[in-house]
Write a structure and sequence with these properties.
Layout (H helix, E strand, L loop, with lengths): L3 E5 L3 H12 L5 E6 L4 H6 L2 E4 L5 H10 L4 E4 L2 H5 L2 H7 L4 E2 L3 H8 L1 H10 L8 E4 L5 H7 L3 E5 L9 E2 L7 H14 L3 E5 L3 E11 L2 E4 L4 E2 L2 E3 L3 E4 L4 E4 L10 H22 L4 E11 L2 E8 L6 H6 L6 H9 L6 H4 L8 E9 L16 E4 L6 E4 L2 E4 L2 E4 L5 E7 L2 H12 L2 E2 L2 E2 L7 H16 L2
Helix pairs in contact: 8-9
Bound molecules: adenosine monophosphate and glycine.
The site of adenosine monophosphate (AMP) has 15 residues, from strand 7 and strand 17.
Cofactor: Mn(2+); Mg(2+)
InterPro entries: ATP-grasp, ATP_grasp_subdomain_1, PreATP-grasp_dom_sf, PRibGlycinamid_synth_ATP-grasp, PRibGlycinamide_synth, PRibGlycinamide_synth_C-dom, PRibGlycinamide_synth_CS, PRibGlycinamide_synth_N
Protein name: Phosphoribosylamine--glycine ligase
């Protein structure tokens, strides 16, 4: 009998997860619960239910009515709301951690305190404040720094000295603003280096890495402009990155293993799902910037398009009760190919209001993407008409035997999205990657 699988999520990452589910053998029946319709996911699903990610009754009711025997949660919002816990109570195994374990993403203060308490390597110097008491003194001694609000901010909440503020007074103003809206602010030493994302399958204490990916958060070519949810990403055929050694990668996996272990020691919570470490390689060593309790968007598209092992086999071993090591017994393989993802976004996405350009229409047309693949993100679709929203529209994936080929295919694919859109043509190019490598070499030399 075919397995009935529920996907909770509506992002481009969810579109890639839906594809991976459908590729599994025997072909399962996919049901999707989405906050807003994603036409890519809807096209793959047998049945779709639209509803809020805080409506636990509606989600569990939908899962039960469709006879789901497995659920995969795509994004942080349902995880934060306890959707994984609710589905588990309904006896449906879930790929996605419970509310308690999701704190690794939802509370930077929780993660930093946990790492400090158990001496986990890779934590930048940091201090958490719940009130303004002592912040001024701390800032005076610990500039340059970054200021991090607690809670989910869509990747846009972190304020970096030199970019968002310069003086102690400006930092104090930002801290006051953060503490007016959030329970804590974390003040962290400002690091310099190259960032990468490491996504791992995780079942209890077992952590299995996927190929590392480099993400591009800045809106404009040459890493200029404001931080966005991400403008694109790449991965390499050797499953390393041009500035990253196998040793660095092993260290990153080790840090994530320690984190799920100390999470268990501290809370009794077993982490089951995808764990994503946002790391920075610095001259003095590897540092962890953030944890996400889910795949990255678009990093999921990079790695899932390379996955050779049956995705549902992996999901079943993740949800296996307690930590009996089933995930360790699987031979998880990825194709030795390069991937480049470029996000096509509304032309005004991530720009300051004074730089907005007038657009005639928000309707986009989709042409043939050639060898590239398209993944829908935030678009509004009614019958055959597709409209832009204020967020990222379509992720374009290029895959090839090397980065040059993957980049060429992705770049060509972006031309298939016609309308008032933009993308970063430099993502995955040899010139940008060489700049990253030179940056790392320079930092290591001046250490
Ligand atoms: P996060 O949400 O913690 O990943 O932060 C978003 C972005 O802010 C990161 O991708 C980095 O570019 C930057 N960032 C975060 N923490 C630091 C840090 N300690 N030093 C320098 N930049 C940082
Ligand atoms: N690409 C960054 C994220 O998914 O959080």
């Amino acid at each position: 009998m075919n397995e009935n699988v529920l996907l909770v999520g509506n992002s481009a990452r969810g579109h890639a997860i839906a594809e991976a589910i459908i590729r599994s053998k025997p072909t399962p029946v996919l049901f999707a619960y989405m906050k807003a319709n994603n036409p890519g996911i809807a096209a793959l699903a047998d049945k779709v239910q639209i509803g809020g990610y805080d409506d636990l009754k509606k989600i569990t009711g939908f899962a039960r009515s469709q006879g789901a025997s497995l659920a995969v949660i795509d994004s942080e919002e349902p995880l934060k709301n306890g959707v994984a816990d609710a589905l588990e109570i309904a006896r449906i195994p879930v790929v996605g951690p419970g509310q308690l374990e999701t704190q690794l993403e939802t509370s930077k203060a929780f993660t930093r305190e946990l790492m400090k308490q158990y001496n986990v390597a890779g934590s930048p110097k940091s201090k958490t404040f719940r009130t303004m008491d002592g912040i001024e003194e701390y800032l005076k001694e610990n500039m340059p720094c970054v200021l991090k609000p607690d809670g989910l901010t869509g990747g846009k909440g972190v304020m970096v000295q030199g970019e968002h503020f310069n003086t102690v007074d400006e930092a104090l103003g930002i801290c006051l603003d953060i503490l007016t809206h959030r329970p804590t602010v974390v003040i962290e030493e400002k690091l310099e280096g190259e960032e990468f994302s490491l996504q791992c399958f995780c079942s209890g204490l077992i952590v299995v890495p996927m190929p590392p990916v480099q993400d591009h958060k800045r809106r404009l070519i040459g890493d200029q402009g404001l931080n966005t949810g991400s403008m694109g990403s790449y991965s390499c055929p050797d499953h390393l990155l041009p500035f990253l050694t196998q040793d660095d990668l092993n260290q990153a996996v080790d840090i994530l293993e320690q984190i799920v272990l100390v999470l268990y020691l501290e809370t009794g919570g077993y982490y089951r799902g995808i764990i994503y470490g946002g790391f920075m390689l610095t001259a003095p060593g590897l540092k962890l910037l953030e944890i996400n309790a889910r795949f990255g968007d678009p990093e999921a598209i990079n790695v899932l398009s390379l996955l050779e092992t049956d995705f549902l086999d992996i999901c079943r071993s993740i949800t296996c009760p307690r930590n009996y090591g089933k995930l360790n017994q699987l031979d998880i393989r990825f194709k030795p190919l390069a991937t480049v993802v470029k996000y096509v976004v509304p032309v005004n996405y991530g720009l300051p209001k004074n730089q907005y350009v007038q657009t005639a229409s928000d309707v986009i047309q989709l042409d043939n993407p050639g060898e590239a693949r398209l993944y829908y993100s935030s678009v509004a679709s009614k019958r055959t008409v597709i409209r832009l929203t204020s967020s990222r529209a379509v992720a374009v994936l290029g895959t090839g035997s090397d980065l040059a080929e993957a980049e060429r295919i992705a770049e060509q694919g972006t031309r298939a999205v016609i309308g008032a859109v933009d993308h970063r043509s430099d993502i995955g190019t040899a010139a940008l990657i060489a700049k990253r490598v030179r940056h790392m070499e320079k930092l290591k030399k001046t250490k």
